[in-house]
Specification:
heterodimer, A: 63% helix, B: mainly alpha, 12 helices, 67% helix, 2% strand, globular
């Protein structure tokens, strides 16, 4: 039997989402109502190993994390681009393989450049 | 149509309950496995063999005081664990838990929905999970939380690339993105792990990193960062983060069993049993046996291997797994071409 792909296939996901959000909302409200509320100024300070906290956490952080995020965006787009090719791999034949190999060699050249540039070097 | 919809709703609620129970008992299982591996007894006070321990923990989480630090962004602080939990609970929609059951002449599939982009759906939902950790860690306005959240998101996105590439080699063989079809193609012991051993290993390592499990649990490594991104969390909000981790572990075990280990297919059993409903239920039981084995495997690794250093983690992800998975795609393509699988 050939399975037909319809937009209504996605409807159960909506039900699942409603169930999940309902469960989470109920739990959050219940724990809010059930727990004791004994607040004090020191209790509400942010934790810093028991010493007085210095400033806040809106501080600059290492640029490496940002670089990794940018590289992730680049590579993940490439990966998503490969999915349609992979699904149709058997039908596309030898030409498909050759084309994708060219693409991947270009991708690997860029990857090699990134590594040689030291973008992924953590000391 | 409407009876199918009712069945789907019941199925969603049943799977939901099973997920929560398995996640709860994974916490108990983890402590028992840890105790076993370290030659201790483990929890044994609440009920016989301590099996009521998860209940006690759950009630404790409910009854604890909620602390929202003064310096934090209140709404984002609450939103973080909610996102983490929602994404953990959404992934199970496309996993085929079994073949179809026939009730009253109609057949119902034991899968919430069979969309033709199942694998992409899993990836999409898993990516949103990063937001839960990032938002929670940032909103806490605590330096440990910020560092933990940065490490977690950096690690998760790095390993997601390798994971995506590992799956491509599998998709090339199966020619479909529907999880149900991939499971069906592996009937009769024709498991994908036989053809994709390298892809399986890459996927497994990435699954460990995605779930923030040891040896890749740097986001919450207690010796450096107190509790990582959930340092400031208490009561059920902390519970949601911990719960989400165990649910993710369960779901990744289910995905690994379905993609690489034949899913609900039970080899040879069809010869002995003719009743299709019984066969379906046995298949589901077989799938759950595989899932439980992989959950045990996750725990086994946790208590065996020490934690990576951050630069080692990044090197393994970017310089180890990504080139390996690209090589895997090349090898798969060449072998399929040489054996004449390509038209």
């Amino acid at each position: 039997m050939q399975h037909q792909d319809l937009p209504s296939d996605y409807f159960p996901m909506v039900i699942q989402f409603i169930v999940a959000v309902g469960f989470i909302a109920t739990t959050m409200v219940a724990t809010h109502l059930l727990g004791p509320k004994r607040k004090s100024k020191i209790k509400l300070e942010s934790f810093e190993c028991g010493i007085e906290s210095q400033g806040n956490a809106r501080i600059p952080f290492s640029i490496k994390y940002f670089l990794v995020a940018i590289l992730f965006v680049l590579f993940d787009v490439e990966v998503i681009f490969m999915y349609p090719w992979a699904v149709n791999f058997k039908e596309l034949g030898t030409t498909g393989i050759a084309e994708m190999f060219v693409f991947m060699v270009l991708l690997l050249t860029g990857f090699y450049y990134i590594i040689k540039k030291g973008a992924l070097k953590w000391e | 149509m409407s009876s199918a919809l009712i069945f789907t709703t019941i199925l969603i609620i049943v799977i939901f309950t099973i997920t929560l129970v398995i996640a709860m008992y994974s916490t108990y299982g983890e402590r028992k496995v840890a105790a076993f591996l370290q030659d201790r007894i483990g929890p044994n006070r609440a009920g016989p063999f301590g099996i009521l321990q998860p209940m006690a923990d759950g009630v404790k989480m409910f009854m604890k005081e909620e602390i929202i630090p003064d310096m934090s962004n209140k709404w984002l602080f609450i939103l973080g664990p909610c996102i983490a939990m929602t994404t953990a609970l959404m992934t199970s929609a496309v996993i085929p838990w079994g073949n179809s059951l026939s009730i009253g002449g109609e057949s119902y599939s034991l899968q919430v929905t069979d969309v033709n982009i199942g694998i992409l759906y899993i990836f999409g939902v898993v990516s949103i999970g990063v937001y839960g950790i990032m938002i929670g860690g940032w909103a806490s306005n605590n330096k440990y939380s910020l560092m933990g959240a940065l490490r977690a998101s950096s690690q998760m996105i790095s390993y997601e690339v390798a994971m995506g590439l590992a799956i491509i080699a599998l998709v090339m063989m199966t020619g479909t993105l529907s999880v149900k079809e991939i499971a069906a193609q592996q009937s009769g012991g024709n498991w994908n792990v036989i053809y994709q051993p390298l892809g399986f290993i890459i996927f497994l390592v990435c699954a460990f990193a995605e779930c923030n499990r040891t040896p890749f649990d740097l986001p919450e490594c207690e010796t450096e960062l107190v509790g990582g991104y959930h340092t400031e969390y208490s009561s059920m909000k902390l519970g949601f983060y911990l719960f989400a981790e165990y649910i993710n572990m369960f779901i990744s075990s289910a995905v690994i069993s379905t993609l690489y280990f034949g899913g609900y297919n039970m080899p040879f059993i069809a010869r002995f049993i003719s009743d299709p409903n019984l066969l379906t239920l046995l298949g589901t039981a077989f799938l759950f046996a595989k899932i439980l084995f992989f959950i045990f495997f996750f725990m086994w690794i946790r208590w065996t291997i020490p934690r990576f250093r951050y630069d080692q983690l990044m090197n393994l992800g970017w310089k180890g797994l990504i080139p390996l998975s690209i090589a895997n795609i090349f090898i798969t393509a060449l072998i399929m071409w040489l054996t004449g699988k390509v038209s």
